[in-house]
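Sequence in, structure out. Go.
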Amino acid sequence: MAYLALIVARPDELDLDLHGYRYASGERVARTKIAEAYANGFRSLRIIHGSSTGGSDNFAPHTGTLKAAILALVQERAIARILDRDPFIGDTATVLFFKRNHHPSNPVRWTALPRPEYTQQSQPPLGAAQPGEQPIFRPPPT
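Output:
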């Protein structure tokens, strides 16, 4: 189930789950939430994209997957300039670390997640903003 949630143990970090989105729409959602998370003053964003389904037996391995879309996004100049260091790339998630935003949006501004193309049976964490809901997360004061 797609969601955006605050990580309770680390209130300056967010989780974005892209399960339910296809390649193109997942890329658009990730691009939007990366920009919003940085603009609102968060320090990191963990993007849960799931395991890559493109295996070594494919003609072009790992292309057309959400993981490939995220890895291509972090190479773009507009996103690379707001990153503090290289992202941590895991099997099912990629963590982006942002530079400190000295002028975060006040009040915080978020857009609602769009409806995913297909649904998952998993439950999002408590307090997560699900598709169609307006997030209200704000980072802790510095």
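Check: The beta strands are 3-6, 13-17, 44-48, 88-89, 93-97. The chain has three helices and five strands.
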